[in-house]
UniProtKB/TrEMBL annotation:
UniProt-listed InterPro entries: AAA+_ATPase (IPR003593), ABC_osmolyte_uptake_ATP-bind (IPR051921), ABC_transporter-like_ATP-bd (IPR003439), ABC_transporter-like_CS (IPR017871), CBS_dom (IPR000644), CBS_dom_sf (IPR046342), Gly-betaine_transp_ATP-bd (IPR005892), P-loop_NTPase (IPR027417)
Highest taxon, organism lineage: Bacteria
UniProt protein name: Glycine betaine/L-proline ABC transporter ATP-binding protein
One Gene Ontology MF term: ATP binding
Residues in CBS domain copies: 277-333
Length: 460
């Protein structure tokens, strides 16, 4: 169920609210109506699902704060409806609205909004005080939430004794202590310096995985939006230009405005293993025989296969050499020759930025697995390098574009060096990317005998 649902919401400031809404609906431009009123939000429709982080992003003045203030009922909508947990707050009386706010909504502000003469603990308990929770219980609960945000032991200090990052943690603890299901955060991390800000983002993601709040998070920082948002609404001049997940917005921008807006995003933090992973058919079940495996080697033109069980749980890899040997020796399953060392697995949601290091050292493509270790796909190093090639050189945080080849040897391509390396390392783990086709004498011989054996089999 949508926890927040906005349908065709308008907010116009000024005395001619109705008139402006009417003319906007008739297709007039907000600029031409500026004399009559400021159209801060125009025809905004969106849903925020339970447990998601919904980010609203846009330039200054695009209407973000106005939008969030209509979610908590601080502003009435000029037109349209705003539903919170299924109830239309635009039609509520003051006391009904206060009730909904109290039960469902807490807010974290950009400038912390802490009370300077109260201790950290009392600040964290403040929301509970407003909810008429007794002093002992509210201070205990405040302490527990201070622990959760990493501030154990700081309860007796005053806000002024804390750094900005710590003060915002108090703000977060205060919002969490109210134990509402919806958390509204308006530029909550924008006043923090970049390192602390990044830490807070990580902490929010971690907390969210435990608490499963429904969060509406406002920011004008693209990287923050992309990092945090399950869904992102991009606002422009009061309208929502696009709603989508980070990948949609990056790879399928709705218009030139959004495309321009996102061009400087650090894609390696946004795109994940799942966005570049490839299907692989170089997969064999462990109960299969070496002869079947040899046919796969031939068909897929690889020198290694991933070995899985019947339900695709990843068990290891086998090399063509080991398989050829096993076939000669009459072994009938791959179980004993499956190598379990040296496969690096990543999750589908691992950001590209975290794939470079493991990929650089790995001799096989990274295996993308789900939480049960089932093989979903592979990321060959060439795919990772290829994704880099499509990055704009302006992506600030990635000066590594030109440095990468030094740390990442293109082992998935056949070069003289890689052939030499293969020749020197006869027991090397299999290289599984399709382009790998080792042609050292030794290997040529084995692959010839592999073809011969499988031809025999076809004939049989
Ligand atoms: N109380 C108000 N009265 C009149 N106009 C207002 C009021 N609040 C906001 N506006 C106008 O509405 C438009 C949207 O403002 P809003 O504060 O929602 O933008 P924002 O996206 O939050 O910007 P920022 O990133 O600077 O916080 C602006 O043109 C602003 O001047
Ligand atoms: Mg604002």
């Amino acid at each position: 169920m949508a926890v927040v649902r906005a349908s065709h919401v308008y907010k116009v400031f000024g005395r001619h609210e109705r008139e402006v809404v009417k003319r906007l609906k008739a297709g007039e431009d907000r600029k031409d109506l500026a004399e009559l009123g400021t159209a801060a939000v125009i025809d905004a429709s969106f849903e925020v699902a339970e447990g998601e982080i919904f980010v609203v992003m846009g330039l200054s003045g695009s209407g973000k704060s106005t939008l969030i203030r209509m979610i908590n009922g601080l502003w009435d909508v000029s037109d349209g409806s705003m539903e919170i947990v299924g109830k239309d707050i635009s039609k509520m009386s003051g006391s009904q609205l206060r009730q909904v706010r109290r039960d469902h909504i807490s807010m974290v502000f950009q400038h912390f909004a802490l009370l300077p003469h109260r201790t950290v603990r009392e600040n964290a308990a403040y929301g509970l005080e407003l909810q008429d929770v007794g002093p002992r219980e509210r201070l205990e609960r405040a302490d527990a939430w201070l622990d959760t945000v990493g501030l154990s032991g700081w309860g007796d200090k005053y806000p002024g004794q804390l750094s900005g990052g710590m003060q915002q943690r108090v703000g977060l603890a205060r919002a969490l202590a109210a134990e509402t299901d919806i958390l509204l955060m308006d530029e909550a991390f924008s006043a923090l310096d970049p390192l602390i800000r990044r830490e807070m983002q990580d902490q929010l993601v971690e907390l969210q995985s435990k608490l499963n709040k429904t969060i509406v998070f406002i920011t004008h920082d693209l990287n923050e939006a992309m990092y945090l948002g399950d869904h992102i609404a991009v606002m422009r001049d009061g309208r929502i230009a696009q709603i989508g997940d980070a990948e949609d917005i990056l790879t399928r921008p709705a218009d030139d405005y959004v495309a321009n807006f996102v061009q400087d995003v650090d894609r390696t933090r946004v795109l994940t293993a799942s966005s570049i992973m490839q299907d692989t058919h170089a997969v064999v079940t462990h109960s299969a025989g070496p002869r079947y495996a040899m046919r796969l080697f031939e068909r897929e033109r690889v020198t290694g296969l991933f070995v899985v069980d019947r339900t695709r749980h990843l068990l290891g890899t086998v090399s063509d050499r080991a398989v050829v040997r096993a076939a000669r020796e009459g072994v009938d399953t791959l179980t004993d020759i499956t190598e379990t060392e040296g496969i690096l697995t990543v999750k589908p949601d691992t950001p590209l930025s975290e794939l470079f290091a493991p990929s650089a050292g790995a001799r096989v493509p990274l295996a993308v697995v789900d939480d049960d270790n089932r093989l979903l796909g592979i990321v060959p190093r060439v795919a990772l390098l290829d994704s880099m090639a499509h990055l704009s050189p302006e992506t600030g945080e990635l000066p590594a574009v030109s440095q990468l080849p030094a740390t990442v040897e293109p082992q998935d391509e056949v070069t003289d060096e890689s052939r030499a390396a293969e020749a020197e390392a006869p027991d090397a783990k299999p290289g599984i990317a399709a382009s790998v086709h080792g042609e050292t004498e030794d290997e040529a011989q084995e692959s010839a005998s592999a073809s011969a054996t499988s031809d025999d089999q076809k004939g049989a």
